[in-house]
Design goal:
The protein is α/β, with parallel strands linked by helices and 361 residues long. The protein has 11 helices and 12 strands. The strands form 2 sheets. It has a 10-stranded mixed sheet, sandwiched between helices. The chain has a two-stranded antiparallel sheet with strand order 6-7.
Length: 361
Protein backbone atom coordinates (compact mmCIF):
# COMPACT_ATOMS: atom_id res chain seq x y z
CA UNK A 1 0.00 0.00 0.00
CA UNK A 2 1.43 3.38 -1.03
CA UNK A 3 1.51 6.01 1.71
CA UNK A 4 2.31 9.60 0.70
CA UNK A 5 2.63 11.68 3.90
CA UNK A 6 2.54 15.00 2.04
CA UNK A 7 3.81 18.22 3.57
CA UNK A 8 2.71 20.81 6.12
CA UNK A 9 0.47 18.96 8.57
CA UNK A 10 0.25 15.99 6.20
CA UNK A 11 2.77 13.75 8.02
CA UNK A 12 0.89 14.17 11.33
CA UNK A 13 -2.45 13.42 9.72
CA UNK A 14 -1.26 10.35 7.82
CA UNK A 15 0.52 8.97 10.89
CA UNK A 16 -2.67 9.26 12.95
CA UNK A 17 -4.61 7.66 10.11
CA UNK A 18 -2.11 4.84 9.69
CA UNK A 19 -2.55 3.99 13.37
CA UNK A 20 -6.36 3.81 13.23
CA UNK A 21 -6.34 1.84 9.99
CA UNK A 22 -4.04 -0.75 11.52
CA UNK A 23 -6.28 -0.85 14.61
CA UNK A 24 -9.15 -2.12 12.43
CA UNK A 25 -7.31 -5.43 12.13
CA UNK A 26 -6.56 -5.11 8.42
CA UNK A 27 -2.91 -5.83 7.67
CA UNK A 28 -1.03 -3.22 5.66
CA UNK A 29 2.41 -3.29 4.10
CA UNK A 30 3.13 0.41 3.74
CA UNK A 31 5.39 1.72 0.97
CA UNK A 32 6.13 5.33 1.99
CA UNK A 33 6.81 7.75 -0.88
CA UNK A 34 7.75 11.42 -0.67
CA UNK A 35 6.06 14.24 -2.57
CA UNK A 36 5.34 17.92 -2.01
CA UNK A 37 7.02 21.22 -1.26
CA UNK A 38 9.14 19.80 1.56
CA UNK A 39 11.03 17.39 -0.72
CA UNK A 40 11.46 19.52 -3.85
CA UNK A 41 15.12 20.26 -3.16
CA UNK A 42 15.87 16.54 -2.89
CA UNK A 43 14.34 15.87 -6.29
CA UNK A 44 15.70 18.67 -8.46
CA UNK A 45 12.79 21.01 -7.78
CA UNK A 46 10.18 18.39 -8.65
CA UNK A 47 7.42 18.10 -6.01
CA UNK A 48 6.11 14.91 -7.66
CA UNK A 49 9.03 12.54 -8.29
CA UNK A 50 8.47 9.94 -11.04
CA UNK A 51 8.96 7.05 -8.60
CA UNK A 52 5.76 8.11 -6.80
CA UNK A 53 3.73 7.84 -9.98
CA UNK A 54 5.34 4.52 -10.88
CA UNK A 55 4.62 3.10 -7.43
CA UNK A 56 0.95 4.08 -7.59
CA UNK A 57 0.61 2.60 -11.07
CA UNK A 58 2.13 -0.67 -9.85
CA UNK A 59 0.18 -0.93 -6.60
CA UNK A 60 -3.09 0.63 -7.74
CA UNK A 61 -4.01 2.20 -4.40
CA UNK A 62 -2.52 5.04 -2.34
CA UNK A 63 -3.36 6.98 0.79
CA UNK A 64 -2.14 10.55 0.47
CA UNK A 65 -1.78 13.42 2.93
CA UNK A 66 -2.41 17.02 1.90
CA UNK A 67 0.22 18.80 -0.18
CA UNK A 68 0.80 22.54 -0.36
CA UNK A 69 -0.24 24.37 -3.53
CA UNK A 70 1.30 27.86 -3.85
CA UNK A 71 -1.17 30.67 -4.56
CA UNK A 72 -0.32 32.55 -7.77
CA UNK A 73 3.29 31.36 -8.00
CA UNK A 74 5.37 28.20 -8.27
CA UNK A 75 4.22 24.78 -9.46
CA UNK A 76 0.55 24.48 -10.39
CA UNK A 77 -0.50 21.63 -8.08
CA UNK A 78 0.77 18.18 -7.17
CA UNK A 79 -2.85 17.10 -6.83
CA UNK A 80 -3.72 18.25 -10.35
CA UNK A 81 -0.56 16.61 -11.72
CA UNK A 82 -1.39 13.31 -10.00
CA UNK A 83 -4.88 13.27 -11.46
CA UNK A 84 -3.61 14.14 -14.93
CA UNK A 85 -0.69 11.71 -15.03
CA UNK A 86 -2.74 8.79 -13.65
CA UNK A 87 -5.92 9.77 -15.53
CA UNK A 88 -7.89 9.76 -12.28
CA UNK A 89 -10.89 11.33 -13.92
CA UNK A 90 -13.38 10.94 -11.06
CA UNK A 91 -13.18 12.54 -7.65
CA UNK A 92 -15.67 11.55 -4.96
CA UNK A 93 -16.19 13.82 -1.96
CA UNK A 94 -18.81 12.52 0.49
CA UNK A 95 -20.39 15.12 2.78
CA UNK A 96 -22.16 13.45 5.69
CA UNK A 97 -23.32 15.09 8.93
CA UNK A 98 -22.48 13.08 12.06
CA UNK A 99 -24.45 13.70 15.30
CA UNK A 100 -22.46 15.94 17.62
CA UNK A 101 -20.97 18.15 14.91
CA UNK A 102 -21.62 21.89 15.22
CA UNK A 103 -23.68 22.70 12.15
CA UNK A 104 -26.94 24.41 11.22
CA UNK A 105 -27.94 21.37 9.19
CA UNK A 106 -28.99 17.84 10.11
CA UNK A 107 -29.26 14.67 8.06
CA UNK A 108 -27.03 15.92 5.25
CA UNK A 109 -25.67 12.98 3.28
CA UNK A 110 -24.41 14.06 -0.13
CA UNK A 111 -21.92 12.65 -2.60
CA UNK A 112 -20.09 15.17 -4.80
CA UNK A 113 -18.70 13.56 -7.96
CA UNK A 114 -16.27 15.92 -9.66
CA UNK A 115 -14.75 15.53 -13.11
CA UNK A 116 -11.03 15.66 -12.50
CA UNK A 117 -9.18 16.09 -15.79
CA UNK A 118 -10.91 18.75 -17.92
CA UNK A 119 -12.37 22.25 -17.54
CA UNK A 120 -10.29 25.25 -16.46
CA UNK A 121 -8.02 23.07 -14.32
CA UNK A 122 -6.37 21.67 -17.44
CA UNK A 123 -4.15 24.72 -17.11
CA UNK A 124 -4.29 26.13 -20.64
CA UNK A 125 -3.49 29.70 -19.68
CA UNK A 126 -1.92 32.74 -21.28
CA UNK A 127 -0.39 35.46 -19.11
CA UNK A 128 -1.53 39.04 -19.59
CA UNK A 129 0.79 41.02 -21.84
CA UNK A 130 2.59 38.06 -23.42
CA UNK A 131 2.75 37.67 -27.20
CA UNK A 132 0.69 34.48 -26.90
CA UNK A 133 -2.11 36.29 -25.05
CA UNK A 134 -2.04 39.18 -27.50
CA UNK A 135 -2.18 36.80 -30.45
CA UNK A 136 -5.11 34.90 -28.97
CA UNK A 137 -6.99 38.12 -28.22
CA UNK A 138 -6.46 39.26 -31.81
CA UNK A 139 -7.74 35.90 -33.09
CA UNK A 140 -10.83 36.15 -30.85
CA UNK A 141 -11.62 39.63 -32.12
CA UNK A 142 -11.00 38.62 -35.73
CA UNK A 143 -13.59 35.86 -35.35
CA UNK A 144 -16.35 38.01 -33.93
CA UNK A 145 -15.46 38.01 -30.25
CA UNK A 146 -15.55 41.25 -28.31
CA UNK A 147 -13.28 42.07 -25.38
CA UNK A 148 -13.89 45.35 -23.59
CA UNK A 149 -10.30 45.32 -22.32
CA UNK A 150 -7.36 43.74 -24.12
CA UNK A 151 -5.09 43.65 -21.07
CA UNK A 152 -6.39 40.24 -20.03
CA UNK A 153 -4.99 36.95 -18.85
CA UNK A 154 -6.77 34.07 -20.55
CA UNK A 155 -7.76 30.59 -19.38
CA UNK A 156 -9.35 28.07 -21.73
CA UNK A 157 -12.13 25.72 -20.61
CA UNK A 158 -12.27 22.42 -22.52
CA UNK A 159 -15.29 20.14 -21.92
CA UNK A 160 -15.46 17.00 -24.07
CA UNK A 161 -18.11 14.44 -24.93
CA UNK A 162 -15.76 11.65 -23.82
CA UNK A 163 -14.86 13.25 -20.49
CA UNK A 164 -18.45 14.14 -19.70
CA UNK A 165 -19.84 10.76 -20.64
CA UNK A 166 -17.45 8.84 -18.42
CA UNK A 167 -17.86 11.08 -15.36
CA UNK A 168 -21.67 11.05 -15.54
CA UNK A 169 -21.70 7.29 -16.06
CA UNK A 170 -19.34 6.98 -13.08
CA UNK A 171 -21.82 8.99 -10.99
CA UNK A 172 -24.68 6.67 -11.93
CA UNK A 173 -22.59 3.57 -11.23
CA UNK A 174 -21.48 4.99 -7.87
CA UNK A 175 -25.07 5.89 -6.97
CA UNK A 176 -26.19 2.37 -7.83
CA UNK A 177 -23.46 0.70 -5.75
CA UNK A 178 -24.11 3.02 -2.81
CA UNK A 179 -27.87 2.60 -2.83
CA UNK A 180 -28.51 6.18 -3.86
CA UNK A 181 -31.75 7.39 -5.44
CA UNK A 182 -30.86 10.41 -7.58
CA UNK A 183 -28.09 12.00 -9.64
CA UNK A 184 -28.10 15.77 -10.25
CA UNK A 185 -25.93 17.27 -13.00
CA UNK A 186 -24.70 20.79 -12.15
CA UNK A 187 -23.79 23.25 -14.91
CA UNK A 188 -23.96 26.80 -16.29
CA UNK A 189 -25.39 25.82 -19.68
CA UNK A 190 -27.61 28.88 -19.84
CA UNK A 191 -24.51 31.06 -20.37
CA UNK A 192 -21.69 28.77 -21.60
CA UNK A 193 -23.69 27.05 -24.28
CA UNK A 194 -20.86 25.23 -26.08
CA UNK A 195 -18.98 23.90 -23.02
CA UNK A 196 -21.49 23.54 -20.20
CA UNK A 197 -24.18 23.16 -22.84
CA UNK A 198 -22.33 20.15 -24.20
CA UNK A 199 -21.90 18.81 -20.66
CA UNK A 200 -25.65 19.03 -20.00
CA UNK A 201 -26.58 17.48 -23.35
CA UNK A 202 -24.30 14.48 -22.77
CA UNK A 203 -25.42 14.15 -19.13
CA UNK A 204 -29.03 13.86 -20.27
CA UNK A 205 -28.05 11.23 -22.83
CA UNK A 206 -26.29 9.16 -20.16
CA UNK A 207 -29.24 9.59 -17.79
CA UNK A 208 -31.56 8.16 -20.44
CA UNK A 209 -29.37 5.03 -20.45
CA UNK A 210 -29.63 4.69 -16.64
CA UNK A 211 -33.35 4.88 -16.09
CA UNK A 212 -33.27 3.01 -12.78
CA UNK A 213 -31.78 6.09 -11.08
CA UNK A 214 -33.65 9.41 -10.89
CA UNK A 215 -32.00 12.32 -12.70
CA UNK A 216 -32.31 16.08 -12.72
CA UNK A 217 -30.06 19.08 -13.37
CA UNK A 218 -29.41 22.46 -11.77
CA UNK A 219 -27.66 25.66 -12.81
CA UNK A 220 -24.66 26.02 -10.54
CA UNK A 221 -25.60 29.30 -8.85
CA UNK A 222 -29.10 28.03 -8.15
CA UNK A 223 -27.58 24.80 -6.88
CA UNK A 224 -25.62 26.76 -4.26
CA UNK A 225 -28.84 28.34 -3.00
CA UNK A 226 -30.69 25.01 -3.04
CA UNK A 227 -27.95 23.34 -0.99
CA UNK A 228 -28.13 26.01 1.70
CA UNK A 229 -31.94 25.98 1.79
CA UNK A 230 -32.75 22.27 1.52
CA UNK A 231 -29.74 19.97 1.12
CA UNK A 232 -31.85 16.97 2.09
CA UNK A 233 -33.43 17.00 -1.38
CA UNK A 234 -30.13 16.09 -3.05
CA UNK A 235 -28.16 12.89 -3.16
CA UNK A 236 -25.38 12.56 -5.76
CA UNK A 237 -24.14 15.70 -7.53
CA UNK A 238 -22.01 15.35 -10.67
CA UNK A 239 -20.12 18.45 -11.79
CA UNK A 240 -17.37 19.71 -14.09
CA UNK A 241 -14.00 20.23 -12.46
CA UNK A 242 -14.17 23.82 -11.19
CA UNK A 243 -17.77 23.68 -9.95
CA UNK A 244 -17.03 20.39 -8.22
CA UNK A 245 -14.10 21.91 -6.37
CA UNK A 246 -16.12 24.93 -5.21
CA UNK A 247 -19.35 23.15 -4.30
CA UNK A 248 -17.61 20.38 -2.41
CA UNK A 249 -16.29 23.02 -0.01
CA UNK A 250 -19.78 24.47 0.30
CA UNK A 251 -21.10 21.00 1.12
CA UNK A 252 -18.29 20.53 3.65
CA UNK A 253 -19.56 23.70 5.33
CA UNK A 254 -22.94 22.03 5.74
CA UNK A 255 -21.44 19.19 7.78
CA UNK A 256 -19.04 21.01 10.07
CA UNK A 257 -16.11 21.98 7.89
CA UNK A 258 -13.22 20.62 5.86
CA UNK A 259 -11.92 18.70 8.86
CA UNK A 260 -14.71 16.18 8.22
CA UNK A 261 -14.58 16.10 4.42
CA UNK A 262 -12.84 13.05 2.90
CA UNK A 263 -12.01 12.48 -0.73
CA UNK A 264 -11.12 9.80 -3.26
CA UNK A 265 -9.77 9.96 -6.82
CA UNK A 266 -10.51 7.12 -9.23
CA UNK A 267 -9.07 6.11 -12.58
CA UNK A 268 -9.54 2.92 -14.54
CA UNK A 269 -6.77 1.09 -12.66
CA UNK A 270 -5.76 3.34 -9.75
CA UNK A 271 -7.31 5.09 -6.76
CA UNK A 272 -5.80 7.70 -4.45
CA UNK A 273 -7.50 8.64 -1.18
CA UNK A 274 -6.94 12.05 0.42
CA UNK A 275 -8.77 14.66 2.49
CA UNK A 276 -10.45 17.60 0.80
CA UNK A 277 -8.58 20.23 2.81
CA UNK A 278 -5.11 21.68 2.35
CA UNK A 279 -1.88 21.18 4.23
CA UNK A 280 -2.19 24.08 6.75
CA UNK A 281 1.61 24.57 6.93
CA UNK A 282 1.34 27.18 9.70
CA UNK A 283 0.15 24.40 12.04
CA UNK A 284 2.81 21.86 11.01
CA UNK A 285 4.36 19.99 13.93
CA UNK A 286 1.92 21.39 16.50
CA UNK A 287 -0.27 18.27 16.95
CA UNK A 288 -3.31 20.51 16.52
CA UNK A 289 -5.24 19.85 13.32
CA UNK A 290 -8.28 17.63 12.88
CA UNK A 291 -7.33 14.23 11.38
CA UNK A 292 -10.88 13.01 10.75
CA UNK A 293 -11.07 13.95 7.06
CA UNK A 294 -7.86 11.98 6.50
CA UNK A 295 -9.23 9.08 8.55
CA UNK A 296 -12.53 9.10 6.67
CA UNK A 297 -10.52 9.03 3.44
CA UNK A 298 -8.87 5.92 4.85
CA UNK A 299 -12.35 4.54 5.48
CA UNK A 300 -13.18 5.10 1.81
CA UNK A 301 -9.98 3.25 0.93
CA UNK A 302 -11.07 0.29 3.05
CA UNK A 303 -14.37 0.17 1.16
CA UNK A 304 -12.49 0.28 -2.14
CA UNK A 305 -10.43 -2.70 -0.94
CA UNK A 306 -13.66 -4.56 -0.05
CA UNK A 307 -12.76 -4.43 3.64
CA UNK A 308 -16.37 -3.53 4.42
CA UNK A 309 -16.46 -4.67 8.04
CA UNK A 310 -13.29 -2.72 8.85
CA UNK A 311 -14.62 0.35 7.06
CA UNK A 312 -17.89 0.19 8.99
CA UNK A 313 -16.06 -0.28 12.28
CA UNK A 314 -13.82 2.72 11.61
CA UNK A 315 -16.74 4.95 10.63
CA UNK A 316 -18.69 3.91 13.73
CA UNK A 317 -15.67 4.62 15.95
CA UNK A 318 -15.16 8.07 14.42
CA UNK A 319 -18.88 8.81 14.77
CA UNK A 320 -18.81 7.76 18.43
CA UNK A 321 -15.90 10.09 19.21
CA UNK A 322 -17.68 12.95 17.45
CA UNK A 323 -20.93 12.25 19.28
CA UNK A 324 -19.21 12.28 22.69
CA UNK A 325 -17.42 15.52 21.85
CA UNK A 326 -14.61 15.08 24.36
CA UNK A 327 -11.61 13.85 22.38
CA UNK A 328 -11.90 16.23 19.44
CA UNK A 329 -9.72 19.03 18.11
CA UNK A 330 -10.32 22.75 18.64
CA UNK A 331 -12.32 23.23 15.44
CA UNK A 332 -15.00 20.83 16.69
CA UNK A 333 -15.43 22.42 20.10
CA UNK A 334 -18.15 25.05 20.84
CA UNK A 335 -15.34 27.60 21.18
CA UNK A 336 -12.13 27.43 19.18
CA UNK A 337 -10.10 28.32 22.30
CA UNK A 338 -11.74 25.58 24.40
CA UNK A 339 -8.99 24.27 26.74
CA UNK A 340 -10.44 20.74 26.59
CA UNK A 341 -9.58 20.38 22.89
CA UNK A 342 -7.15 17.56 22.19
CA UNK A 343 -4.48 17.13 19.54
CA UNK A 344 -4.22 15.11 16.34
CA UNK A 345 -2.58 12.14 18.02
CA UNK A 346 -5.07 12.10 20.91
CA UNK A 347 -7.99 11.92 18.46
CA UNK A 348 -6.37 8.80 17.00
CA UNK A 349 -5.99 7.35 20.51
CA UNK A 350 -9.70 7.88 21.22
CA UNK A 351 -10.78 6.26 17.96
CA UNK A 352 -8.47 3.31 18.54
CA UNK A 353 -10.07 2.87 21.98
CA UNK A 354 -13.52 2.78 20.38
CA UNK A 355 -12.33 0.23 17.82
CA UNK A 356 -10.98 -1.92 20.63
CA UNK A 357 -14.28 -1.72 22.45
CA UNK A 358 -16.24 -2.70 19.36
CA UNK A 359 -18.35 0.45 19.45
CA UNK A 360 -21.27 0.64 17.03
CA UNK A 361 -22.88 3.92 16.02
Amino acid sequence: MILIPGDGTGPELTEATRRVLEATGVEFDWDVREAGADVMDKHGGNPLPPDVLDAIRETGVALKGPITTPVGVGFRSVNVALRKELDMYAQVRPCKAYPGVRTRFEDVDLIVVRENTEDLYVGIEYEQGTPEAEELISWIEAHGGRLRNRDAGISIKPISVTGTRRIVQFAFDYARRDGRRKVTAVHKANIMKFSDGLYLHVAREVAAENGDIEFDDRIVDNMCMQLVQRPEEYDVLVLPNLYGDVLSDLCAGLIGGLGLAPGANYGENVAVFEPTHGSAPKYAGQNKVNPMAQMLSGMLMLRHLDETDAADALEHAIAAVIREGKSVTYDMKPSRDDPTAVGTSEVADAIIDKLGAGVRA
